[in-house]
Amino acid sequence: MYSAEISRKNPGCFIFLLDQSASMEDPFGSSSDRRKADELATIINKLLHNLSIRCAKGDSIYDYFHVSVIGYGQDSVVKSAFDGPLTGKDLVPISELANNPLRIDDRVKKTDDGAGGLVEQSVKFPLWFEAKHAGGTPMVGAFKMAADIVQRWVAEHAKGFAPIVINITDGEATDGDPVPEAKALGSLGTDDGATLLFNIHLSSTAGNPIELPASADALPDKFSKQLFEMSSNLTPFMIARAKELGMPADEGARGFVFNAQPVQVIQFLDIGTRPANLR
Amino acid sequence: MIDALHPTSQAPFSVEAFSCQKAGNARTEYEDAWAIRGSDSPTRCRVAVADGATESSFSALWAALLVESFVRGPSHGAEFFGRLGAIRRLWRRKVRGRPLPWYAAEKVRRGAYAAFVGASLNAVNRGWRAVAIGDCCLLHVTGRAPKLELAHAFPLTRSEEFGSSPFLVGSVKRSDDDPVPHVRVTEGVLQGNDALFFASDALAAWLLRRAEKGEPAWEAIGPEGIQTQQDFEALVALAREEGTRNDDMTLVRLTRRANGGG
User: Model ipTM?
Assistant: First the structure.
């Protein structure tokens, strides 16, 4: 299980669900100056940046992954979150995504000069998403749309690595109980395993970050406990990767983080989007 | 492909290389590299194998530059990894100077990575010295078929030691990425009909796993086991059937000639 090779002929499928509801305008954790929506935009842009670079090979990019980004909340609807040239598309090869950001900024990055110092380098920094926050939190609808995409995907890729769905939210669904839909999503899969659902909880509740827990005991509220319950166990490969990165990941660790700092969230996404070695 | 070196009758060593790309990939996507030099010299024979990391860009080029520099350059000990400046500059010159999309440029900035094993051999005293970083392996096999035994495996000795993230040598110098502390060095002496095999990680892991289970391993890669590229491809297919990761595979086989050298 969870061992199918990922290659251009047998690509992986990632679906990211972004909570873009009005409550995402609230501050993140105990911070007063960082809104959850800003946090989310930073995270998803960095994630797509990392995924694109991981698939870059020589002067081109290999379609190891097909990627969907679904937004839920804007006008209380669920739809593809892409803007610009990708508007309306619900699942795109990574090459199409990498070649069509909303814009590419020039930034100066300080990098290691190899002799213990830093040197400034100009780098291109693509952005796909701006912060958005309006409407309710139709998380149930988001899981339904993810299930539709997964169903189509697994019909065409029965022997592929199981789809991975990552939901980033402040945890408060407004269109019903998301647990049954999450379970329905988890009942779909390929010959290699059931769909993996991971959750990132950007809470307004102040609290210590909790990463990859194996139980819900330390979680502070019902929303975080609910998201934990909906989260799949990490695969053995992901647990090994988490340990390499110095993250706590015991037997039974779930793909769930609560109020983690952006660096930890990006690390988590690195783990959660690393199903296996690429060919 | 087979690269018999057409050794002269005086050549103390016979060296052959076999390689195979990942199943489903084009030959041009092969990212291992090997180099052999001086198999006709009694004291300056060198062999190296490197495995360019799939997840880095232009890693085949980096692997090729490493092995060529090792067999042609003045350093064949741990100091080789302390003098990578010229090789890194060459890699940079070859990959820059072309317009690249943002993701390709960023990946170049992060550098290419490779595992490496290289050895120098002396036919006069039959000694060999090897250096390695990562999980490309040297396997010293002794005895006569069918009683072949592994005398020395380097730098990894057991199949379970092969993981997915060994330390690799990078094409971009970083202060937190210095390869020198990770260099492993060893040496040995060839006896009688001993052979040295150099293998990239997936093949080395499979061979060690077979040997640990008491299954034929060394006979399969000796001169009787592999004579042609088709023989090697059949061996690779068997390894993959037995669950070996789909990876590039490279084997360099070095044997002493009966009347050669010392």
Answer: 0.87
Closest partner residue to B22 (CB to CB) among A124, A126, A279 is A279
Residues A268/A164, Cβ–Cβ less than 8 Å: no
Cα of B54 to nearest chain A Cα, Å: 7
Q: What is the pLDDT of residue B44?
A: 84
- Domain carrying residue B72: 13-256
- Give whole-number Cα distances, A41 to A20, A81, A159, A190, A267, in Å: 10, 11, 33, 31, 16
Closest Cβ opposite residue A5 in set B58, B100, B246? B246
Residue B1 has pLDDT above 60, yes or no: no
> Quick one: closest CA in A to B175, which residue?
A114
B261 within domain boundaries: no
Whether B112 maps to a domain, the answer reads yes
CA distance B128 to B113: 26
pLDDT digits (tens, 9 = 90+) for A141-165: 999 999 999 999 999 999 999 999 9
Residue B120 in domain: yes
Q: How many CB atoms lie within 10 A of CB A119?
A: 11
CA B116/CA B49 separation, integer angstroms:
6
Which chain B residue lies closest to A121 (C-alpha atoms)?
Answer: B109
SS3 A147: helix
> How far is residue A214 from each of residues A79, A183, A224, B178, B224, measured CA to CA in Å?
32, 18, 13, 36, 53
Domain count, chain B: 1
- Give, rounded to a whole angstrom, the gap between the first and last alpha carbons of chain A: 18
Quickly name the fold that domain A12-101+127-272 has: Rossmann fold (3.40.50)
How far is the C-alpha of B135 from the C-alpha of B198, rounded, in Å? 11
pLDDT digits (tens, 9 = 90+) for A165-206: 999 998 889 999 999 999 999 999 999 999 999 999 988 777
3-state helix, strand, coil in chain A (%, to 5): 35, 25, 40
Closest CA to B199 of B215, B221, B178: B221
Q: How far is CA B87 from CA B65, B73, B156, B173, in A?
A: 7, 11, 26, 11
Residue B88 near residue B224 (C-beta atoms within 8 A): no
List, for residues B70-107, the tens digit of each pLDDT value.
Answer: 999 999 899 999 999 999 999 999 998 788 999 999 99
The pLDDT score that the predictor gives to residue B12 is 85
Which of B24, B57, B173 lies closest to A58 in CB terms? B57
User: What pLDDT is attached to residue B262?
Assistant: 41
Please determine, for residue B6, whether its predicted confidence score (pLDDT) is greater than 60: no
The residue extents of the domains of chain A are 12-101+127-272
User: To probe the interface with A, which of B25, B100, B102, B173 has the most A CB atoms within 10 Å?
Assistant: B102
Q: Do B103 and A111 touch (CB under 8 A)?
A: no
Residue B8 lies in a domain: no
- Residue A107: per-residue pLDDT: 85
Question: Which residues from A are below 8 Å from B when comparing CB atoms?
Answer: 5, 7, 9, 52-61, 98-99, 104, 111-116, 121, 123-124, 126, 237, 240, 244, 277-279
pLDDT at A33: 76
SS3 B216: coil
